[in-house]
Amino acid sequence: MKVRAKMGVSQTQRLQLSTGLHAALRMLRADAAGLTHFLEEQAAETPALSLHPVLPAAGDWLPRWSGVLPHSGPDEAASLAAHGPSLIAHVMSAIPGLVPAPRDRTIALALADALEPSGWLGRPVADIAADLGVSPDAVDRVLIRLHQIDPPGLFARNLADCLRLQAIDAEALDPVLSVMLDRLDLVASGDWAALARLTGAPEAEVHNRFRLIRSFNPKPGASFATIASPLREPDLIVRQGEGGWLVTLNHSSLPALSVDPAAAGAARARDMVRLVESRNTTLLAVAQAILSHQRTALDQGPAALRPLTMQTLAQSLGLHKSTVSRVVAGAAVDTPHGTWWLRRMFSPDMGADTAAAALRARLARLIADEETTQPLSDEALAQALSEDGAALARRTVAKYRAELRIPAAHRRRHKP
């Protein structure tokens, strides 16, 4: 048998992404932290590109701290987040292992009852001790044990106490940071010179501690909300203005870029700047469209979310659905109700113009308000949620309850 070589001509098509298109897609999908890391890599390879940190303006030094500074204290905590049972369920499951003694367990349950949605105590320790007929020292001893519950900062008396607990957990509490936590009014106003004099440290050290404080969470309990994002710097800020809700980029979450036209790689550096500007423009346009549709949720909270799909939003903006999907993938927005994932604001219609995300929020509210000696069954919850016209099956309620990390009725029951 002979083997013969044969030559032929064929034509094929293959899609290959250019370097610029690949970078654009990566930027579009990245959140602020991921984009900063990518830009740091590009600056290391491109001498003409420089990155400069952006410190927040005085008085608005971090979006998620609004409503906490400058008046920190339990009275401020009540309005920081919508109450839901997930935080309480998390705390109640941890108490038996930390507080085994029956007398101390009573104190721990009273402290849990005083826990605000922000994660702070809503009542002074002295008042709780007086109600229980025990000494404040006895309550303090139990409170120290409850400080071991994750995330760090839960059961704090006020903002400074919350941040101090997180600094201790991170093994980062030193004399300079301790003084700054005692003078959060100066931190909020950005008076670095005064802080340097008080701490006896150079301003560069004060800036380093400031960046550490920014990484802490002033409302550790708010991360248990239904559509909340975890602890992170939000990409966008939404605030109430004279003409309605205003959406802006959180400029302090990204470094400022500059290009040296005389250095090597100036053309590539300019391309990077254009790509970042394009990413920011697209993100802002998508966020404005989402939040315009969800104005009622901004007014009333997650329970008022309306149905919205990515396909519908993409068509209204003249974008492809995949573009919307990429840009909201890791983006978070700071709202008066906490920091929310943009992706979580999309939800299918469950009937009567009611979003599935809104039903989950209402479910959390129903369970939070139930009588703990007679908790509501999934069937009863389904009937209550269906009163507004959204037909909801018992198994759907069970699925939502599992997503919210809420135990079944028999596990939520407490003896009178």
TrEMBL record:
Protein origin, superkingdom: Bacteria
Domain RNA polymerase sigma factor 54 DNA-binding residue range list: 267-413
Keywords recorded for this protein, A-Z: DNA-binding, DNA-directed RNA polymerase, Nucleotidyltransferase, Sigma factor, Transcription, Transcription regulation, Transferase
Pfam families xrefs: Sigma54_CBD (PF04963), Sigma54_DBD (PF04552)
GO cellular component, as recorded: DNA-directed RNA polymerase complex
GO process annotations (BP): DNA-templated transcription initiation
UniProt domain RNA polymerase sigma factor 54 core-binding: residue ranges: 79-260
Entry-linked InterPro entries: RNA_pol_sigma_54, RNA_pol_sigma_54_core-bd, RNA_pol_sigma_54_DNA-bd, RpoN_core-bd_sf
GO MF annotations in UniProt: DNA binding; DNA-binding transcription activator activity; nucleotidyltransferase activity; sigma factor activity
PANTHER family assigned: RNA POLYMERASE SIGMA-54 FACTOR
Protein family per UniProt: Belongs to the sigma-54 factor family.
Function as written in the Swiss-Prot or TrEMBL entry: Sigma factors are initiation factors that promote the attachment of RNA polymerase to specific initiation sites and are then released.
Protein's name according to its UniProt entry: RNA polymerase sigma-54 factor
Lineage: Bacteria, Pseudomonadati, Pseudomonadota, Alphaproteobacteria, Rhodobacterales
